[in-house]
Design a protein that fits this description.
Helix content: 25-40%
Order of helices and strands: EHEHEHHEEEHEEHHHEEHHEHEHEEHEH
CATH superfamily of the largest domain: LarA, N-terminal domain
Number of strands: 15
Largest sheet: 9 strands, mixed
CATH topology of the largest domain: Rossmann fold
CATH architecture of the largest domain: 3-Layer(aba) Sandwich
Bound molecules: iron/sulfur cluster
């Protein structure tokens, strides 16, 4: 049965440290041990002081690092901030100060490796350090997100997509919330963190995930050995149906189980958080969104040799963008919303997503500039 551990917490380090040790003991399944390389993946969205509640609190990371060192394992903290350099985030976020006496490596994700996260996305470039670590500890922040409602454990793994590749994946998959949520779930599943710890001691409500949100003290830490379970636990504490959280809805469609989640630890009752109005997910200025989708986002194409003209893709397409033709099927890319349902359903593997020429050029330019 899915389980999550909920503990009361404060940023008074003498009180916080034993709580984190106890949670890590309960959740770590004995996987953090001597000489293991433990990759700690916080939420380091942007340079911000801990009082802004935008990033995982430095003292939560300190507790996790001390736990890893206590087990004689080798901790590394890495992330790829969406805004600002890794070094600036460490400095302004108080991480350098909090971790200064500890034997921990701090380095940004820099090298990607292509890895198959499953259909319909196929190979995605993820941080090699996260893929190769012996153990990944996911140290997320409990905060609102104007596009995905909440940023919790599953979404934190999107930081393993390095730099502007994040934008590229937003371009490719961010045409609707369901597709993007599914991308997040499949990236999370590929990294498969052993422990997820969500810092909700000072959470963020309103128009998160950045500084537009408002810090809200909740005084909780939520942990689980499955990020989906931790996220479901937060929903339960908020009295929120899991189907309202796009990542959990996507996980349900993938037949992943996360409810009913059993809450262990402190009985804290209900928590409340002002949730944002969901904003459109499309990338770029509104008047260019159609153009971006048509010209930059990967589009479904058919292999006429494989197509058996079964009509499944025609039937499932929500935009009525697929029509049968003489040899196979053809696509009208103007109404196509790039949901990739057709690729998913084709029983003969006759469809795949292909880059457009402008999309390819954009990727090369990004690569040239090291993005
Ligand atoms: S053709 Fe239809 S099913 Fe296929 S990606 Fe476009 S909108 Fe989705
Ligand atoms: S689902 Fe596949 S095989 Fe069937 S018509 Fe579409 S492309 Fe052809």
């Amino acid at each position: 049965m899915p389980e999550a551990l909920v503990r009361r917490g404060t940023y008074d380090y003498s009180a916080l440290r034993p709580v984190i040790f106890e949670m890590m003991d309960a959740l770590g399944q004995g996987r953090i041990k001597e000489n293991r390389r433990v990759l700690i993946k916080p939420n380091l969205l942007s340079p911000a002081t801990p009082a802004k509640a935008v990033t995982t609190h430095p003292l939560v990371l300190k507790g996790v690092v001390e736990y890893v060192l206590d087990k004689k394992a080798c901790p590394v903290i890495s992330d790829s901030p969406a805004i600002g350099s890794f070094d600036r985030v460490l400095r302004e976020g108080g991480y350098r100060e909090a971790l200064k006496d500890l034997d921990v490596v701090l380095k940004p994700f820099s090298v990607s490796a292509k890895t198959d996260i499953g259909r319909p996305f196929g190979a995605v470039e993820l941080a090699e350090a996260a893929l190769k670590a012996d153990v990944v500890v996911n140290c997320a922040k409990l905060k609102t997100h104007s596009q995905m409602l909440l940023t919790l454990g599953v979404k934190n793994m999107f930081g393993c997509v390095i730099g502007l590749k994040k934008s590229e994946w937003h371009l490719r998959s961010g045409v609707d919330r369901e597709t993007f949520a599914r991308l997040l779930v499949q990236i999370h599943n590929r990294i498969a963190p052993a422990v997820t710890l969500i810092d909700g001691i000072l959470a963020l409500e309103g128009h998160g995930p950045g500084k537009g949100g408002t810090p809200k003290p909740l005084g909780i830490l939520v942990g689980s050995r499955e990020a989906l379970w931790a996220d479901a636990a937060v929903c339960r504490l908020l009295g929120l149906s899991p189907d309202r959280l796009p990542t959990l809805a996507a996980a349900r469609r993938l037949d992943l189980s996360f409810v009913p989640v059993r809450l262990l630890g402190d009985d804290i009752g209900k928590i409340s958080l002002r949730l944002p109005e969901l904003a459109p997910l499309s990338f770029g200025p509104r008047r260019f969104q159609g153009l971006i989708r048509r010209h930059l986002v990967q589009r479904p194409v058919v292999d006429p040799v494989r197509c058996r003209q079964c009509g499944e893709c025609v039937a499932i397409c929500p935009a009525k963008a697929v029509t049968p033709d003489e040899k196979a099927v053809s696509f009208d890319y103007d109404p196509c919303i790039r949901c990739y349902c057709c690729i998913e359903i084709c029983p003969h593997g006759a469809l795949h997503a292909a880059e457009t020429l402008p999309g390819k050029l954009l990727r090369r330019v990004m690569k040239y500039w090291g993005m």
